[in-house]
Amino acid sequence: MLRGEYISWKPLKLPAVSCFGGFSMELFCSLGRKALLQGKACQNSLAIGKQVSCRTFPTGTCRSQHLSSNSRANPGRPGFLPRTPCGSFFESFYTASFLPRRLLSDARFNVPPSAEFVARPVGVCSMFKLPIQNSAEGLDVAFVGVPLDTGTSNRPGARFGPRHIRAESSMVRLFNPSTGADPYHSLVAADIGDVNVNLYNLKDSCRQIREAFQKIVAQGCVPLTLGGDHTITYPILQAVAEKHGPVGLVHVDAHTDTGDKALGEKIYHGTPFRRCVDEGLLDCKRVVQIGIRGSSYTQDPYKYCRDQGFRVVLAEDCWMKSLVPLMAEVRKQMGDKPVYISFDIDGIDPAYAPGTGTPEIAGLTPSQALEIIRGCQGLNIVGGDLVEVAPMYDASGNTALLGANLLFEMLCALPQVKRT
User: Fold this and answer.
1) Four-CA torsion 257, 261, 267, 273, nearest 10 degrees
2) For 365, which of 30, 45, 70, 379 is 20 to 30 Å away at the CA?
3) The pTM is what?
4) Phi/psi class of residue 258: alpha, beta or left (left: φ > 0; alpha: ψ in -120 to 50)?
5) Buried b vs exposed e over 388-420: b needs ≥16 C-beta within 10 Å?
6) End-to-end CA distance of the chain, in Å?
7) DSSP labels, 21-84
8) Sorting pLDDT into bands at 50, 70 and 90, what band is 336?
9) Given this model, what pLDDT does residue 106 score?
10) How far is it, in rounded angstroms, from Cα 204 to Cα 235?
11) Mean pLDDT computed over 377-405
12) What is the largest distance, in Å, between two alpha-carbon atoms of the chain?
């Protein structure tokens, strides 16, 4: 017998039961806020395309006795799939004439619905169509947006990155056949919304971000962040290093972001890693920066990085070659200590990712980006971010789509993810 667990939503309008071939699913609405799913396996396999029956139970029925003994019951976190705060989603999903068995395999996890059975535009927009919840409680991985671009030096617009990345993420499916990763049956993941930043005060925004991420990492949850400009990585690393100590860094970017100040300000998107060094947040012998390129204001713009012990991999050293050998060296450099991944979308050539604020020509390709993130498999990854997507400079949406896919690859690279 398959049993579900509590699901936390706003008030829902739900059909109570639909039977799909050999599987019946009951939904009980308790006080209009909690529902319980109970699946009863029959001897016959799913009869695809055959809806057996549909009947309605009265609302207000609490069936807490059906909670699975191996479920991590927590009324504050979502439960069995498909979890979404959208009643119309349930009406369309549960009145469908069939349901895929693989999506009902384990009530402990949040498994996004397949577009084979639920149309991509249906439901509230969330990262990978995962459930939305207000905190990281009960989660292994949390997707969190930081819609801040007050620290940009050229073209603004990265504040809109999180919502566009979420929208494009509906194209990303459940499994990663290239790596064998099965993230949604390995980790409990959800979208916990955005940090409430102060668009008029960058230092105050950094405080808000730091405090928000302190709460996330304190619960043992790995944050994967949707930016936002690169300023946000500084307060995130303050929170991460508070828990894990100085971390290694895999940093993909066109720029080193190690400037000291600009226009008299020491905090903006060109200085986050200088500030991190100042505060001892980085294990400098385990920092690699990949894809660095572009003109500069000095003859030796990378001297500071190399003086700290960073490994700087220029974009021209990556041209026309696989980065698999490079990443084998990076894995040895990082060892088994905590590692953070920070990926600026302008590390990718603007032919592929024009939707960004400070584009630089002759960058990395998307396939090299995949090699970098997949090359982080086996590392002790404690967080990651994808920053600097400014969607208004790319009407196609492809920059945000690329960003969504790279975040999926980060999810798949986490050490707890099962692989086939």
Assistant:
1) 30
2) 379
3) 0.78
4) alpha
5) bbbbebbeebbbbbbbbbbbbbbbbbbeebeee
6) 25
7) TTEEEEEEEETTTEEEEEEEE-SSPP-TT-EEEEE---SS---GGG--TTS---TTS--SSSP-
8) very high
9) 62
10) 11
11) 98
12) 75
Q: What is the pLDDT of residue 108?
A: 83
**71 within 8 A of 107, measured Cβ to Cβ:** yes
Please state, in angstroms and rounded to a whole number, the distance separating the CA atoms of residues 17 and 10.
19
- The per-residue pLDDT for range 258-308, each reduced to its tens digit, is 999 999 999 999 999 999 999 999 999 999 999 999 999 999 999 999 999
CA distance 230 to 102: 38
Rounded-to-5 percentages of helix, strand, coil across the chain: 30, 20, 50
CA–CA gap between residue 49 and residue 184 (Å, rounded): 26
Name the helix (H) or strand (E) containing 251.
strand 247-252
CA distances from 255 to 98, 167, 250, 296, 347 (A): 50, 27, 13, 10, 8
165, 127 contact by CB (below 8 A): yes
Angle between helices 366-374 and 324-334 (to 10 degrees): 30
pLDDT tens, residue by residue, 236-268: 999 999 999 999 999 999 999 999 999 999 999
Q: Residue 327: what pLDDT?
A: 98
Q: Which two tokens stand for residue 232?
A: 């946000």
Residue 296 CA to residue 256 CA, distance in Å, equals 11
What are the start-end ranges of the E strands in 85-200?
141-146, 181-182, 189-194
- Alpha carbons 240 and 222: distance in angstroms, whole number: 9
Both tokens assigned to 195: 């940090």
Please give the C-alpha separations between residue 228 and each of 163, 208, 211, 235, 317, in angstroms, as whole numbers. 10, 14, 17, 13, 28
Q: Which residues pair with 227 in a beta bridge?
A: 146
In eight-state DSSP terms, residue 359 is -
Q: Give me the numbers of helices (H) and strands (E) for the chain, helices first please.
A: 9, 16
Write the single-letter amino acid at 207. R
261 contact partners, CB below 8 Å, separation of at least 6: 271
